[in-house]
Amino acid sequence: xxxxxxxxRLRNGIQIPCIGFGTWQTPDGRVAEExxxxxxxxxxxxxxxxxxxxxxxxxxxxxxNSNVPRKELFITSKVWNTEKGYDTTLRAFDKTLSDLGLxxxxxxxxxxxxxxxxxxxxxxxxxxxxxxxxxxxxxxAIGVSNFKPHHLEALMKxxxxxxxxxxxxxxxxxxxxxxxxxCRKHEIxxxxxxxxxxxxxxxxxxxxxxxxxxxxxxxxxxxRWCLQNNVLPLPKSVTPSRIEENTAAFDFEIxxxxxxxxxxxxxxxxxxLDPDNRDF
Length: 280
Ligand code: A2P
Known about the structure:
By secondary structure, the chain is an alpha/beta fold. The protein has helices at 30-41, 56-66, 86-100, 119-135, 149-156, 177-185, 205-212, 218-228, 240-245, 256-263, and strands at 7-9, 15-17, 21-22, 46-48, 74-79, 105-110, 139-145, 165-169, 189-193, 232-234. Helix content is 38%, strand content 15%.
């Protein structure tokens, strides 16, 4: 990977730009509009949002104001937990498209696996709606988020299309090895949400020491580390200097020794969310 325009290739041949611009916790309104527009101006070609972020309209305005042709951009959104099911997912998709002001999505994800007694059934019905939207070419690729191997195994028993992406929390100290190994085996690309551990990793002394070997910030070290692990990072920022800084991940290479040190780090913080035990 040498630039923001370089891509990972999904199983169905779709090319996905190698760093996505995250928008979780980006406030709706001017902040989202301006940060998305600025990110695209600085070269990002991949924007990641979700219905539950409640900023899709503003993200859509930012995309439009960038004046970059739609086909040069890769836009992802996600169906929220309360919209699970066949008809509800189809309706949620229409709303997402209309809020974003787009006529297709590049990637649509089930945001969290449904859990509880009917979890498996709801995941399957949602997935059936995804397959229909994919067949109708209203989405170029379909996937999941926060799925562990047991959620994927259950879904894949009846799926016509195997998910092309699994977007999970992934950063130093939280590599979800079992999930990553399962996804690799099935050619499911891993995307990293909160590659900076929602910012909690940035003051870590060990990471700071390693970052100093390259004269880079810890944020850039984490972004580059994802890429060298063949994982697609989705760093979020609303600060222009950081949005720009996070694009400078292509002019250095982390040594195998430093990769090994980071890959072996114990848990040092993150969101604390567990897909199987959550109250939302
Ligand atoms: P902000 O949006 O205020 O600029 P993650 O992507 O892991 O969820 O992390 C996002 C958090 O990290 C946000 O609080 C964001 O702050 C902060 N952040 C993003 N990029 C950088 C950077 N290059 N340096 C310092 N903090 C950053």
